[in-house]
Structure formats: C-alpha cells, structure tokens
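Chapter summary example.
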Amino acid sequence: MMEFAHKKNVKVISLAIAALMVIGVFVLAIQGRNLGGGDATMNSAIGKVNYNQVMASAPGLADAQTQLQQAAEDSRKEFEEKSKDMSDADKQKLAQEYQKKLQDKQKEVLEPVKKEVDDAIVAVGKTKGLTVVVNQGAVVYGGVDVTTDVQAQLKKAKK
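The structure predicted for these 159 residues follows.
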C-alpha cells in the first residue's frame, strides 16, 4: 500500500512541475510580446557594418600608422644599440620590453581612431533608427548595410 501511495505522489508532483513549466512558458511568451512598448521589438532594425573597411578608410589612420612605423623604427634602432653586448637571455628580456612599449603605443595611437569610428557607427545607427549595428562578418542573412553611411559620417565629422 505504501509503495502505491509513493508512486501516486511522484505522479502528482511530476504533473505539478509540468503544469508550472507550461504556465511559465506561457507567461514568458506574453511578456516577450510586450517588451519595448509593444511593436518595437517586432519592427526593430539591425544594421551591419564592415568594420575593417571603415577603419581602413578612417581619417587619422594614416597618421596613426606613420606614428607606429616611426615608433617601431626607433625601437629597433634603440634595441640594436642597447643589445650589442648582451647575452641571448638579456636580449630576449629587452625585446619583450620593447614589444610591450610598442603595444602600448599602438593602443594609444589607435584608440582615438577607433572611438571616432564607433561614434560614427552610433550616429548613423540612431539616424537610421537602428536598434543594433553589428560587424558584417557576424551576419549570415539580412541587416541594413551602413558601411558607406558610416564612412560618409566620418568624412563629415572631420571637416
């Protein structure tokens, strides 16, 4: 008798859990439909941008590359001068130090260019009423291509 009651309790508990899950999914579906003030999620637009293409044509990138090339050349000369009489282990440590300095310089020089590009992407996205703009490489299908608009925004912002 006890075994039968135990099986009955397991069945009742299982049915209660299943019912709660169904109710939960139903509530989530209703709430999901009402997110963002009604139809906003249904009419949202996704933009895509070729970030590499925009960066390559960004004003200021040529200056940044020139600065980085000059820094690399200066570092190379300095390294050669300092490492003449060093052991291989010391040369390797010194090379790592110069590599770190060059990475810091690269970040320092490219960060303003990246910020300009990101700001232009945001401006174009807002102008076109887009809710999100993603890198074109992440898009399999669809999306509004705003690459040329972002490039035009960058040129306009530089003037």
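To summarize the output: The first strand starts at residue 46 and ends at 49.
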